């Protein structure tokens, strides 16, 4: 929501990006090895992945698959932050914690409250 400007404008105290353009700039900072148009496509893919994984996890459908996807996405994000931004950034935002939590969720043998468990 922040990257779409729904939580405030860029520079607001509680906003990280504030609009899509600033989000794309940050994405390009995290992927300096890619051409800008390719990094912009990666920003779209990451946003779509975040949305899909969040909905699947909240609804309780395909939890293992969504948790693995969330783990891979957040791990890639954390490593990019660590290498290309500031080594403290992934720790300040607990990105490694989110990544590890997703991996932990993926390793559970059963999901009692999931849609699949209700069949």
UniProtKB/TrEMBL annotation:
Domain of life the protein comes from: Bacteria
GO cellular component: membrane
Major localization class: membrane
InterPro entries, alphabetized: DoxX
One Pfam family this sequence matches: DoxX
Keyword match Membrane: yes
Residues annotated as transmembrane: 38-58, 65-85, 91-111
Protein localization: Membrane
UniProt keywords, alphabetically: Membrane, Transmembrane, Transmembrane helix
Protein name, as recorded: DoxX family protein
């Amino acid at each position: 929501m922040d990257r779409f400007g729904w939580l405030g404008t860029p520079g607001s105290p509680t906003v990280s990006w504030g609009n899509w353009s600033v989000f794309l700039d940050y994405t390009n900072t995290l992927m300096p090895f890619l051409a800008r148009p390719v990094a912009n496509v990666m920003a779209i893919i990451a946003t779509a992945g975040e949305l899909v994984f969040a909905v699947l996890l909240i609804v309780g459908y395909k939890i293992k698959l969504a948790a693995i996807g969330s783990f891979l996405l957040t791990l890639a994000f954390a490593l990019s932050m660590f290498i290309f931004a500031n080594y403290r950034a992934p720790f300040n935002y607990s990105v490694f914690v989110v990544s590890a939590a997703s991996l932990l969720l993926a390793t559970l043998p059963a999901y009692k409250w999931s849609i699949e468990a209700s069949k």
